Amino acid sequence: HKLFPNDMEPLLKTLKAHNIRVLHIIGGNDSAATGLSVSEAARADKYELQVINLPKTIDNDIVLTDHSPGYGSAARFISQATFGVGRDAEAMGINSPICIIEVMGRDSGWLATASSFYKKTDRDAPHFIGIPEVIFSEESFMISIENAYRNYGYAVAVVSEKIRSGEGNLGRENPPTFTDAFGHSYFESPGNYLSDLVEKRLGVRCRWEKPGSIQRSLMDAVSTTDREEAYELGQKAIEMARSEMNEVIVTIIRSDNKKYQYSIGSANLKDVAGKIKYLPENYRPNEEGYTSDSFKSYLRPLLGNPIHDTEPIFNLL
User: Which is catalytic among the residues 59, 61, 66, 226?
Assistant: First the structure.
């Protein structure tokens, strides 16, 4: 929820009425900006208030923290769903051989790239991943999809909700369908656009899936790592309040990748607010839907347990 200048007076009035001196705000980089604005308003009003943020975003785009609670759970859902959709499309054959999956990730491709976690061979889904950090090429997309379809009888692509071509938002000739309170515009589905493109070019049925809020709310997909770390971050936020810290956000610091180890730290809100952590180049997928071993090593502990990543879930006859 974005707070506007005329929201500050009633907010401070409520805080004063209940003598609230510590405000914990849970969210992403926009929430960090909200925390800063509340703290500044309280200071201008000479009201003593500590503002301490906690990271929570499935987009995983908060800077100065290794990852955000919520990302592992959503990535767990997306990775399993993509592999399963691939086997479904393969089984459907000529009736529905191609599928586009559109996932969340307004500015970064952390979630879309997680779809490749189970991919071990060229045959496995996904066969293409589109992320906001890389300019989208319709021709490269079509080459990847057509090659997979011709070679394996099916194809699956995963795209972030705001992939961009060289001209801007993909296929967007119309105004946005929705603009949120933070000014972020949302256009008609790129998955829908690409599905139409595939059907016109290849002459076969192409389904498109948009999990929407399911990918961030399915209880059975909750990562054990997310559950444990969220509790620890909450405890740390209380300790920070008792230590009279202010205008900070709790962070996760990874110290070992092979045997996952981490510590809990903090960063200044002003260094986080409004900033975006993009997917590093060495984590980005190639045009065949593969991602790097370094990204899989980063992601693996965040997915929690159990994860069946050593043997195929399905056997081909």
Answer: 59
Task: Confirm whether 7 is a catalytic residue.
Answer: no
pLDDT digits (tens, 9 = 90+) for 130-157: 999 999 999 999 999 999 999 999 999 9
Domains of the chain are 5-68+221-271 (3.40.50.450), 73-220 (3.40.50.460)
Q: What is this structure's pTM?
A: 0.91
- What's the distance, Cα to Cα, between the start and end of the chain in Å? 51
